[in-house]
């Protein structure tokens, strides 16, 4: 539980990703999704991030105003908007990727001395935890959809599982 709390706390703190301004985790995750999926559209990014297209669109607009993302209209369909990173957005994306790589390397250096059987045991434990939390997340999303339906709110949760 302590590990999850620390992960949760670290995912709330804004950081500087090499561009001399603070970015929230949701900002950098959107940058990461666009960087990993160039020329994607709002729907694709919203599906990747598990957020509504409206929320993704608002966030993209905010990042475009900050000079991190560009929006361009489709040639065949002018209603479709394609997303790409500006050089500044690309710099933040690369910095974020480097940060992840450094974290992975630190973890590997600490588990490297373990025996293979211990690593396999850890993997099984982590997979079990992931499975339980995936189930719980589905349950919570289902409950929220039912609540929204009862209260006639129009908040889409996408696929709940």
UniProtKB/TrEMBL annotation:
Q: Which GO terms describe its molecular function?
A: DNA binding; DNA-binding transcription factor activity
Q: Name one Pfam family in it.
A: MarR_2
User: Cytoplasm: is it a keyword of this entry?
Assistant: no
Which branch of life, at top level?
Answer: Archaea
Keyword Lipid biosynthesis in record: no
Which Gene3D superfamilies does UniProt cross-reference here?
Winged helix-like DNA-binding domain superfamily/Winged helix DNA-binding domain (1.10.10.10)
Q: Which PANTHER family match?
A: HTH-TYPE TRANSCRIPTIONAL REGULATOR PCHR
The name under which this protein is listed is Transcriptional regulator, MarR family
């Amino acid at each position: 539980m302590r590990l999850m709390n620390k992960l949760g706390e670290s995912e709330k703190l804004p950081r500087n990703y090499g561009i001399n301004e603070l970015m929230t985790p949701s900002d950098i995750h959107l940058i990461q999704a666009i960087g990993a999926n160039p020329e994607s559209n709002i729907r694709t990014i919203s599906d990747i991030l598990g957020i509504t297209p409206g929320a993704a669109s608002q966030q993209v607009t905010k990042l475009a105003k900050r000079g991190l993302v560009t929006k361009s209209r489709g040639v065949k369909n002018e209603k479709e908007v394609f997303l790409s990173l500006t050089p500044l957005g690309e710099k933040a994306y690369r910095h974020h990727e480097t940060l992840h790589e450094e974290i992975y390397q630190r973890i590997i250096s600490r588990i490297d001395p373990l025996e293979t059987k211990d690593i396999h045991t850890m993997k099984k434990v982590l997979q079990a935890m992931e499975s339980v939390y995936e189930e719980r997340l589905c349950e919570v999303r289902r409950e929220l959809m039912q609540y929204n339906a009862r209260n006639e709110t129009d908040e889409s949760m996408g696929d709940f599982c």
